């Protein structure tokens, strides 16, 4: 597949991910027009491509800031986000420059993948695949969130979370019982949509 077609396919996957995961979504058209989380991810994918060209880093930041103004979602163009990321509701989401996010991740509004210090270098979290981050949760520092983990609403995570675990509370405590993968959860599952 050519590069432009591959890029369009990735954008389409983002759209489909939102359509499949949000029980309130009634059509692809509605999702494409009315979902700020999808718009923010789309703009990020463009800005990240620009970011990889050193002379385009300032324009990439400006594009990113336009998306922030329009959606309330701030994604640094240097962050590395996987495929089919769904940001639900979106407002107040912050994803820092050195954050890394796997495939099929869900972030709810108010969640932060942030740094604990102002030092340069890797200072933001790394999320595996199928991670769910609840509304208002803060994941701080270069911690690792294993695949299939779930971070509860309003949790503050400052240590690694094993794959499949649940992290809840402030500071977050780890519950080592099997968590449901984002893709395996029924769309009206109360564990995801409280
Ligand atoms: C963390 C979460 C995924 C766990 O869901 P679950 O697998 O159904 O687990 P349970 O509800 O059985 O909770 C397990 C334990 O964690 C506690 N817990 C669950 N969510 C919590 C939270 N956000 N903060 C603090 N404790 C929490 C429960 O009280 C329970 O404790 P107990 O074992 O001592 O009784 C879920 O509660 C959650 O927070 N999801 C995020 C949803 C969200 O942000 N929705 C936004 C919609 S707009």
Automatic annotation (TrEMBL):
It catalyses: L-serine + acetyl-CoA = O-acetyl-L-serine + CoA. The keyword Ribonucleoprotein does not apply. Pathway: Amino-acid biosynthesis; L-cysteine biosynthesis; L-cysteine from L-serine: step 1/2. Gene3D superfamilies: Hexapeptide repeat proteins, serine acetyltransferase, domain 1. One of its GO terms (cellular component) is cytoplasm. It is an enzyme of class 2 (transferase). The keyword Nucleotidyltransferase does not apply. Keywords: Acyltransferase, Amino-acid biosynthesis, Cysteine biosynthesis, Repeat, Transferase. One of its GO terms (biological process) is cysteine biosynthetic process from serine. InterPro entries: Hexapep, Hexapep_transf_CS, LbH_SAT, Ser_AcTrfase_N_sf, Ser_O-AcTrfase, Serine_acetyltransferase, Trimer_LpxA-like_sf. GO terms for molecular function: serine O-acetyltransferase activity. Its EC number is 2.3.1.30. Belongs to the transferase hexapeptide repeat family. NCBIfam families: cysE, EPS_EpsC. PANTHER family: SERINE ACETYLTRANSFERASE (PTHR42811). This is Serine acetyltransferase. It comes from Cellulomonas chitinilytica.
């Amino acid at each position: 597949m050519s590069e432009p077609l591959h890029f369009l396919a990735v954008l389409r996957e983002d759209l489909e991910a939102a359509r499949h995961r949000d029980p309130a979504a009634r059509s692809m058209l509605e999702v494409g027009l009315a979902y700020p989380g999808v718009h923010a991810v789309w703009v990020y994918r463009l800005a990240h491509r620009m970011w990889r060209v050193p002379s385009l880093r300032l324009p990439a930041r400006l594009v990113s800031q336009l998306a922030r103004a329009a959606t309330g979602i701030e994604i640094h163009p240097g962050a590395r986000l996987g495929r089919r990321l769904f940001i639900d509701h979106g407002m107040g989401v912050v994803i820092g420059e050195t954050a890394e996010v796997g495939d099929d991740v869900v972030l709810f509004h108010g969640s932060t993948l942030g740094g604990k210090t102002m030092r340069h270098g890797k200072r933001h979290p790394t999320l595996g695949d199928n991670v769910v981050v609840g509304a208002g949760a803060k994941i701080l520092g270069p911690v690792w969130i294993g695949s299939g983990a779930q971070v509860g609403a309003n949790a503050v995570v400052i240590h690694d979370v094993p794959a499949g675990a649940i992290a809840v509370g402030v500071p977050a405590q780890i519950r080592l019982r099997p968590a449901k993968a984002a893709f395996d959860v029924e769309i009206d599952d109360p564990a995801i949509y409280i």
